[in-house]
Design brief:
With 370 residues, this protein is an alpha/beta fold. The protein has 14 helices and 15 strands.
């Protein structure tokens, strides 16, 4: 029988991103058991490198065996119980998802909304925190649906002063922007491997502060998800190595290689590379009629939300995206929610944050415009 074969694409959507040959080689390593000493040494390495990347000393920093949405659920399910109050900042689709996850847990959710493409108003968040005295304050650092980078400290500081636990979505920012969970006062954070880490999707790097673990230990009832209960996960990802589930050995090997590449480059250089690619993208797309949705002050470098020119809308934006994929092997993302049909989301993440990616996309668009 034939082996499954996918076409080669340049992945310039909101994720996944392309992976390096080194990461692919790591995926192809011989399989060992999830309690094999060789694997456990790699797991220890991954956890320590993730601590450095998250900017934290949190002992329970780990690659959750789930996607970024599972990481979201893990953070909220561990810190919230039915009836607890939560304040959630909604600046796009993934803030909306936080609300829905918290609601299903049984929390009393207060939404603080802003228009897609704008950052949350810190004053509105502070007011909601003071008024509701929530157990959890949750928001997105890098909103993948809009391309907005949310300043963290102006929201995290009043949340911590009010005694709330701060949950931060770092799915798109990890390994693309410097993070400082400890300095910011973040109690629980999660990410994904398929964005700026340039690894396959399937893991959610996450970190839980000691204060968050104390909250879990003091719960009135068990965490509603057995699989995502950090008091159980700590037994395997800590020094005891108590069996919890069969860890995805090959995926963690790939993540280890991705993290090594991040540290070899250095975060300062990595951030600069993402910003250089983003600036080139905006500069080259302007003559084609594209315009950024987000103001420069809060614009993400790794994910650009671009307003569509008339010629793209007349052509049919979904049709043109399909033709870019089929004719040129390039994937870009459409808008979500209120922004569907009016923007493209163009990702320059990790391995793809390069001028060559910009040049290839712009050349394809010029040919399609004619």
């Amino acid at each position: 029988m034939a082996v499954t074969s996918f076409p080669t694409r340049l992945l310039l959507g909101p994720g996944p991103s392309n992976v390096s040959a080194r990461v692919l080689e790591a995926l192809a390593q011989p399989l060992v058991g999830h309690l094999d000493p060789a694997f456990l040494a790699t797991l220890d390495e991954v956890q320590e490198r993730l601590r450095r990347l998250f900017g934290t000393r949190n002992e329970l920093t780990l690659p959750l065996s789930t996607t970024g949405s599972g990481g979201m659920e893990a953070c909220l399910a561990n810190l919230l119980e039915p009836g607890d109050r939560a304040v959630v900042g909604v600046a796009g689709v993934f803030g909306e998802r936080m609300c829905e996850v918290a609601r299903r847990i049984g929390a009393d959710v207060t939404r603080v909304e802003t228009e897609p493409g704008t950052a949350l108003d810190a004053a509105a968040m502070r007011e909601a925190i003071a008024r509701t005295e929530p157990v959890v304050v949750a928001f997105v650092h890098a909103e993948t649906s809009t391309g907005v980078c949310q300043p963290v400290e102006p929201i995290a500081r009043p949340a911590r002063e009010a005694g709330a636990f701060v949950v931060l979505d770092c799915v798109t920012s990890l390994a693309g922007l410097p993070l400082a969970l400890d300095a910011w006062g973040v109690d629980a954070a999660y990410s994904g491997t398929q964005k700026c880490l340039s690894c396959p999707p399937g893991l959610s790097p996450a970190s839980f502060a000691p204060r968050a673990l104390e909250r879990v230990a003091a719960r009135r009832r068990p965490v509603q998800s057995w699989y995502l209960d950090v008091s159980l996960l700590a037994g395997y990802y800590g020094s005891e190595r108590v069996y919890h589930h069969t860890a995805p050995v090959s995926m963690i090997a790939a993540l280890a290689e991705g993290l090594r590449r991040v540290e070899e480059e250095g975060m300062a250089a990595r951030e600069a590379r993402h910003r250089e690619a983003s600036a080139a993208l905006l500069r080259e797309l302007e003559p084609l009629g594209f315009a950024p949705l987000v103001e420069a002050r809060v614009r993400l470098p790794m994910l650009s939300a671009m307003r569509l020119p008339d010629w793209v809308i007349a052509r049919g934006e979904a049709r043109l995206r399909r033709e870019l994929l089929e004719r040129h092997g390039i994937e870009v993302g459409g808008g979500l929610g209120k922004l569907a049909g009016s923007i493209w989301r163009i990702g320059l993440m990790g391995e793809n944050a390069r001028l060559s990616s910009v040049e290839r996309l712009v050349a394809a668009l010029r040919r399609e415009r004619g």
